[in-house]
Amino acid sequence: MARIFVSYSRKDEDFARRLATSLSDMGADIWIDVEDIPAGMKWSSAIQQGLDEGDLLIVVISPESMGSRNVEDEWQYYLDNGKPVIPVLLHPTKIHFQLSRIQYIDFKDQPYQLAMRHLYVELKRKGVKLNPNITEPTKAYLPTPHQYPTPQPKSNRTLQLAVAGIAIVALAVVAALAGVALLSNTSSTGTPTEGGQIAGVATSTDAPAVTATTAPTATSASPTLTDLPPTATGVPSATPPPPATDSPSATLPPSATHTQVGYPGSPVTRNADWSPVVRTFDGIEMVLVAAGGFTMGIDEAQTDAAWQQCLAALGECNRSLFEDERAQQRITFERPFWIQRYEMTNGLTQPHYGAPVTYAGDNLPRTNVPWNSAQLYCQGIGLRLPTEAEWEYAARGPDNLTFPWGNTFDGSRLNYCDGNCQFDWRDTAYNDGFANPTPVGSYPLGASWVGALDMSGNVWEWTSTIYSFPYPYNANDGRENDADVNSKRTLRGGSWNWIAADTRTTARDDYAGENVASEWYGFRCARDWQAGDVGS
Fold first, then answer.
1. Cβ of 221: how many Cβ atoms within 10 Å?
2. Which residues pair with 60 in a beta bridge?
3. pLDDT exceeds 50 at position 201
4. Which of 32, 96, 418, 507 is deepest in the core (most CB within 10 A)?
5. Is the dihedral of CA 179, 182, 187, 189 positive or negative?
6. What was the pLDDT predicted at 102?
């Protein structure tokens, strides 16, 4: 395994230690002076030994390191001997002309985890082999933001499958009585749910049955769009797109009763059973997600397919990256709900918040929004963030599609890192002409079964759900705790600057919520189905 020498100035020691720990957690063999100089050994001799034993050098760029003769001697020694050097920019400074010719990894202007992702890819390009048996401490630093549960032994899974089979039979009896419970506005167990809404019932082939409820709408002080951090400027302003002719028909169903397909008492069983329903609430265009059920997560064959797709993009990829999408479970929504048709944009404002507030690129997705700001904004306009289960159901439907449009990847139906992308993992098989986020709704052929656009690619979207694994998803186990602003929250959908494997309807991202914002994170809101809505 290649050994990495970390060169830094003493003032940057805290960062250098953190970097070394992150790389060690990823399986890298690290040499750093504060850890690897034995007691009693002459400092200069130890440095010489570390340099000679190293195969690659990472130099931390800061004003202090660029003014340090010792640091210069270290990276110069590697260049003189033809060994690779990777600069990482910590603080702005004038970079030595010999280092300035080498592309650096930017830790100054982007989140630490994102910079670690880029560093991982660069190390891979340099031939550094990381330990495939990645353990739990690495979860915050991996190139794709997933965690790694220990796979269950096959014997345990077989036993659980047998138990689950009995549970499914029992749930079938419960389902037969669901219509009576719905009319009395209670859950399937007869206990009233919050706000009088009916809980969806979840069962699992690998875990005991659980309950998935619609997230309650919290009350809070109404934020304005100015509460959200500014986004990038310099993008031409655009108007919201007209309804696309190629997207599913946006028509209201005939006057509904509780027996109409997609409403309480008559769930959809196929994506084709449902025609998209579009309605505007206070200027926010939303689509109705029909009552019904789906299989959340992926199986063995789908795990292999995702892994192969990742390998094709990166050349090296851990299969365990996709373990957080397992095991599969059945999720049922007894009531429909609404989800925003488009990702929230820069130009959307609410008239009752006073003078309109606009940003450059009004029709681009709103990015650089931390989770708690997205949550408060949705709540302030009478909506909420969708739960992780709601998001996946709206994206894939009862047919359990791998992508919103079907089970085969089609790079022309979404914005991801294709031929015009600036990163090394670009997919040259497609090129839509966009190197950054696109105006929302630009890919009508990528619409989901309910008529929601951009659920694959463009920007990752915040959900209300605290990141947890493995499944089953259980809304009552604390993962829908809005008051917890420190735990990692789950993002869904993939982004414009990442690979196709993470644009699948089941892919998950897991960055912390309170202060983490990124140019590739956005959001869309959801809304409970209420009395007076279509079909009620």
1. 8
2. 88
3. no
4. 507
5. negative
6. 86
Residue 135 has pLDDT above 80, yes or no: no
Are residues 400 and 453 both part of a single domain?
yes
* pLDDT score for 517: 82
124-138, 174-188, 348-362: which range is least confident on average?
Answer: 174-188
Query: Can you tell me which residue has the tokens 């500014």?
Result: 230
Please tell me the predicted confidence (pLDDT) of residue 175.
Answer: 42
Residue appearing with tokens 């702005």: 92
Element counts in the chain: helices (H) and strands (E): 12, 17
Give CA–CA dist 348/363, Å, rounded: 8
Cα–Cα nearest to 345, from 434, 421, 276, 285? 285
CA distance 3 to 325: 33
What pLDDT is stored for residue 44 in this prediction? 79
Going by C-alpha positions, the residue among 316, 304, 309, 318 that lies closest to residue 132 is: 318
384 and 343 inside one domain: yes
Is the bond leading into 447 cis (omega within 30 degrees of zero)? no
For residues 421 and 425, what is the distance between their CA atoms, to the nearest angstrom?
Answer: 9
CA–CA distance, 187 with 201 (Å, rounded to integer): 9
357 or 122: which leads in pLDDT = 122
* 133 and 156 share one domain: no
Last residue of a domain, one of 138, 172, 193: 138
Residues 300 and 448 in one domain: yes
Enclosing H/E stretch for 163: helix 154-176
Residue 72 has φ and ψ, to the nearest 5°, of: -60, -40
Q: Per-residue DSSP letters for 91-152?
A: S--PPPHHHHTSPPEE-SSS-HHHHHHHHHHHHHHTTPPPPSS--GGGTTTSSS----PPPP
Gap between the Cα atoms of 503 and 236, Å rounded: 26
Q: What is the pLDDT of residues 496-532, one digit of tens each?
A: 999 999 999 999 988 754 567 888 899 999 999 998 8
CA pair distance 333, 296, nearest whole angstrom:
12
SS in 3 state form for 423-440? CCCCECCCCCCCCCCCCC
Q: Which of 138, 171, 189 is the last residue of a domain?
A: 138
- d(CA 524, CA 376) in angstroms, rounded, equals 12
Q: DSSP secondary-structure letter at 169?
A: H
Based on the fold, state whether residues 156 and 131 are members of the same structural domain.
no
Q: Assess whether 35 and 123 both reside in one domain.
A: yes
Two structure tokens written together for 424: 């090394």
- Report the predicted TM-score, pTM, of the whole model to 2 decimal places: 0.58
337, two tokens: 């709900």
pLDDT tens digit string along 398-430? 999 999 999 999 999 999 999 999 898 999 999
Q: What is the CATH number of the domain that holds 131?
A: 3.40.50.10140
Full strand arrangement of the beta sheet holding 200-204? 210-212, 200-204, 329-333, 292-296
Overall average pLDDT of the 245-249 stretch:
41
Cα 427 to Cα 416: distance, rounded to the nearest angstrom: 9
Kindly report the CATH number assigned to the domain that includes residue 291.
Answer: 3.90.1580.10
The answer to whether residues 195 and 52 belong to one domain is no
pLDDT tens for residues 293-324? 999 999 999 999 999 999 999 988 888 889 89
Structure tokens at 231: 């986004």
The residues that bridge with 293 in the sheet, in sequence order, are 332
Residue 143 near residue 122 (C-beta atoms within 8 A): no
Mean pLDDT to the nearest integer, 183-203: 33
